[in-house]
């Protein structure tokens, strides 16, 4: 089976390039081959490759910058996935896509289910929500994995930023009033591969029965402050981590105060997800 993989230079895409090897023949395309801001190019590449499955972890992920580039964020996160869905329909292909906890406003401190109302607080979240909706509306076989606070030992992420800052400084000030679940990029890729293996073994109506949104986050919850404490501790660094409020750390984009996802649906149907701290330790070791 031919699998078209986007975003293989990103955190999740890099891990997927490895995890999807057992799923099929992976054709990985980077920005140089398929620029998601060029919708004609997206269409042309899909028509050339003719995949049976498109896996799309590529996205505009710069949350603060998106506030000043809403059109570009929307093109990459909503219009490009819409084109992928249209082309998948023509080919009879399935689409695996990724979305975010930032589709929620996070006003209520309770884990969010897939059926809970959305209400993004920022341009990035709104653009990702529009991407989800375009895929769902296309009526194709699809899986949308909403994940959160992605980190890994490569790429641009909170873990690597904090490791760098903790080495440079004696103390870090980190917000302690935003709650979520840090999720290792490798967990996301491995779970994706496991679910696709089940799809492969599942018979002809598997996609009809299972298409939809799934929350895919590590278990448990924390704050950016406590996440940083765990990072500093695990790295054995000598750096104080001071709790601050969101108001003490002004950013262009608003973030949800509480965006913990309940991954019960995914765990009931497919597989177990690890605790965030155990995954962090595995990643850092
Ligand atoms: N990072 C996070 O904390 C979270 C991410 N997600 C979602 O998970 C998915 C994977 O994210 P993650 O791997 O962390 O993201 P990264 O930021 O690590 O990687 C993004 C990828 O998208 C590619 N990309 C960006 N713009 C374009 C473009 N115009 N054309 C082609 N490729 C482009 C990047 O390519 P290049 O290297 O060339 O820039 C890179 O490969 C995304 O859908 C994201 O929205 C969900 C929750 C949290
Ligand atoms: C660097 C730094 C950040 N912060 C705060 C700012 C912010 O509120 C919080 C997180 O910072 P970041 O900007 O790294 O995180 P952010 O870019 O908001 O991360 C998000 O990315 C997108 C792609 C997602 O989909 C989300 O799930 C989430 O992972 O930490 C501090 O308090 N102190 C610091 O020194
Ligand atoms: Mg960021």
Q: What is the level-2 CATH architecture name?
A: 3-Layer(aba) Sandwich
Q: Provide the β-strand percentage band.
A: 15-25%
At the first level of CATH, the class is Alpha Beta
> How many domain modules?
1
Please tell me the overall pLDDT: 97
Briefly note the CATH topology name: Rossmann fold
Q: Could you say which small molecules are bound to this protein?
A: NADPH dihydro-nicotinamide-adenine-dinucleotide phosphate, dtdp-4-keto-L-rhamnose, magnesium ion
| Name of the CATH superfamily | NAD(P)-binding Rossmann-like Domain
Q: Tally the beta strands.
A: 12
Choose one word for the global shape.
globular
Tally the helices: 11
Judged by helices, strands and strand pairing, the structural class is alpha/beta
Helix content: 40-55%
Report the biggest beta sheet as strand number plus sense, adding barrel if it closes: 6 strands, parallel
| Head-to-tail CA distance between termini | 34 Å
Radius of gyration: 18 Å
Spans of 5+ residues with little confidence (pLDDT < 50)?
none
N-to-C SSE string, H for helix and E for strand: EHEHEHHEHEEHEEEHHEEHEHH
Strand order of the largest sheet: 2-1-3-4-5-10
């Amino acid at each position: 089976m031919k699998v078209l993989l986007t975003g293989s230079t990103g955190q999740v895409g890099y891990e997927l390039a490895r995890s999807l090897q057992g799923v099929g023949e992976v054709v990985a395309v980077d920005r140089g081959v398929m620029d998601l801001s060029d919708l004609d190019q997206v269409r042309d590449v899909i028509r050339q490759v003719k995949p049976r499955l498109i896996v799309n972890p590529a996205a505009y992920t710069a949350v603060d910058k998106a506030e000043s580039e809403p059109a570009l964020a929307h093109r990459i996160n909503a219009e490009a996935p819409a084109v992928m869905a249209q082309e998948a329909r023509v080919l009879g292909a399935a689409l695996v896509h990724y979305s975010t906890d930032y589709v929620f406003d996070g006003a209520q401190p309770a884990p969010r289910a897939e059926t809970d109302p959305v209400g993004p607080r920022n341009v990035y979240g709104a653009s990702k929500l529009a991407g989800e909706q375009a895929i769902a509306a296309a009526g194709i076989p699809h899986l949308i994995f909403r994940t959160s606070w992605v980190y890994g030992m490569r790429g641009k992420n909170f873990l690597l930023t904090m490791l760098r800052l903790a080495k440079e400084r004696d103390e870090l000030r980190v917000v302690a009033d935003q709650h979520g679940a840090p999720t290792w990029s490798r967990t996301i890729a491995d779970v994706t591969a496991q679910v696709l293996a089940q799809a492969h073994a599942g018979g002809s109506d598997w996609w009809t029965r299972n298409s939809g949104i799934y929350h895919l986050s590590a278990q448990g919850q924390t704050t950016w402050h406590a996440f940083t404490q765990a990072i500093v501790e695990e790295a054995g660094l000598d750096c104080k981590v001071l709790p601050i409020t969101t108001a003490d750390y002004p950013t262009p984009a608003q973030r949800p105060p509480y965006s913990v996802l309940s991954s019960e649906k995914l765990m009931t149907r497919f597989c177990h997800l690890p605790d965030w701290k155990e995954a962090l330790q595995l990643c850092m070791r």
